[in-house]
Amino acid sequence: MAKGVAPKPIDKDNFKLGFIGAGNLASSVATGLVKLGILPASRIFTAHRNPESRVAFTSVGVQVFQQNSKVVEECDVIIFAVKPQILKEVILELGPLLSEDKLLVSLAVGHKLKVLQEWAGHGRFIRIVPSTASAVGEAAIAMHLGEGATEEDGELIANLFGAVGKVWIMDEKLSDAAGAVGGAGIAFVFVAIEAMADGGVAAGLPREAALGLAAQAFYGAAAMVMKTGEHPGQLKDQVASPGGITIAGIHELEKGAFRASMMNAIISATKRSHELGQ
Question: Domain Pyrroline-5-carboxylate reductase catalytic N-terminal: where (predicted)?
């Protein structure tokens, strides 16, 4: 495309969506889009030669090609969901087909927009910082727009990924911190749930009951923060009665520097993400 010529706008009612890479993350997004009625399966495509890997897509009606090039030729929006270490090779191989009329999206961890745009030959690129919670439709997702991506492009992709979680559009300079909180942070919560369950077992609860109660406690607490809009500190104060069991437990958490440890975990993960992105 000639320099300075505006790319063709995406037809929001008729565009076709293609996934390059047919792994768990891609299938969870595709399945969410179809099941929620956001996009019909007839307008979603991917490519994979392994019959077993095709099932997650074909079971909801998504067409699976043999070659990635067919996906790019067919689709208007291309989502790269391959492993970070092969992303450059895949983009360069498909390069001649990746015109600026194609809106490109990367789910790969680590690769910044500047590099992605160089590989593709244009800036109509959007970067998504994903989360494994996409598999259950509850991901915390950060999204960054490339220099050639329009506001309409951003809205389109935010609506698509809203099928598997909640999307925050932000400057890419915040990507490492966003990935630490929304991506790595889910693992920190898993550790906390496990620790609470172990505490329940130590206090006499059966393992299954302890794990279920702990997981539901986190789920309920998160729902209250999201739905009430109240600060978590205010919600904590509502539970912690004077001289009660909750404040006694919080006292122990404070003695163990729980909050400082969680803050340090986020800071450490952010630094590591920055290092990997260099």
Answer: 16-110
**Does residue 83 have a known ligand-binding role?**
yes
Strand order across the beta sheet in which 139-145 lies: 63-65, 44-47, 17-20, 77-80, 103-106, 125-129, 139-145, 165-169
Instruction: Note whether residue 215 is domain-resident.
Output: yes
Check: CB of residue 72 under 8 Å from CB of residue 18.
yes
Q: Which domain holds residue 191?
A: 178-276
Sign of CA dihedral 44, 171, 173, 133: negative
Count how many domains the chain has: 2
pLDDT digits (tens, 9 = 90+) for 233-276: 999 999 999 999 999 999 999 999 999 999 999 999 999 988 87
User: Using CA of residue 223, residue 228, residue 230, residue 233, what is the dihedral sign?
Assistant: negative
Statement to judge: residues 154 and 74 lie in one domain: yes
25 is in an annotated binding site: yes
Ligand-binding annotation for 141, yes or no, is no
Residue 201 carries which DSSP code? H
- In contact, 120 and 107? CB cutoff 8 Å: no
Asked whether the predicted pLDDT for residue 216 surpasses 70, the reply is: yes
- CA max distance for the chain: 72
Q: Does 159 appear as a known binding residue?
A: no
Shared domain check, 208 and 148: no
The answer on whether 21 is annotated among ligand-binding residues is: yes
Q: Is 23 annotated as a binding residue?
A: yes
